[in-house]
Amino acid sequence: MLVHALPYTLHVLASLIWVGGMFFAWMVLRPATAKALEGPARLRLWGEVFPRFFGWVWVAVTTLAISGVVLIHSRFSGFETAPRYVQWMIGGAIVMVAVFLRIHALLLPQLREALAREDWAAGASALARIRRMVGINLLLGLLVVAVASARWSF
Fold first, then answer.
1. How far apart are the first and last CA of the chain?
2. What is the CA radius of gyration of the chain?
3. What are the residue boundaries of the Copper resistance protein D domain, all occurrences included (predicted)?
4. What burial class does residue 28 get, using C-beta atoms within 10 Å of its C-beta: 0-12 exposed, 13-18 middle, 19+ buried?
């Protein structure tokens, strides 16, 4: 059992960092910035926030993948024999990583370019698309956490 403690702990912590960060950004930071800052200042703030948060997301994604593989092989002898809830977690994680990659590779550069040009309309458009994708990923992350913690068998 002790063999599983470290990878399991790292897996849970990485999940908390990623999903908790999205929850904070969506439910706390977004409404606060909308109320307290004008458009250009709000866009500049998000232009600073995303690279910092996404650095942590990369750490979380890497940690989740490594710890997940270790747990699957040490507890269940592979994917085929893992319980259904573990397979659902993996599927959810794959979708979440795909959404994150879309944000990081396609939408964040659009926001950066708009900020560099001081094109506030293009920046607001890019931020709105990022916000939607983060919202989708937050919902997926909460669902994955619910499936994992309840160990539902679908």
1. 26
2. 18
3. 48-149
4. exposed
Q: How far apart are CA 114 and CA 124, in angstroms?
A: 9
DSSP 3-23: HHHHHHHHHHHHHHHHHHHHH
Of the CA atoms within 13 Å of residue 13, those in its CB half-sphere come to 11
Structure tokens at 61: 């994604």
Can you give the length of the chain in residues? 154
Lowest mean pLDDT among 27-36, 48-57, 80-89: 80-89
Q: What is the pTM of this model?
A: 0.91
Domain extent, residue 93, equals 2-150
Tokens 């990081």 -> residue = 104
Number of domains within the chain: 1
pLDDT, average across residues 116-123: 98
Beta strands in the chain (DSSP E): none
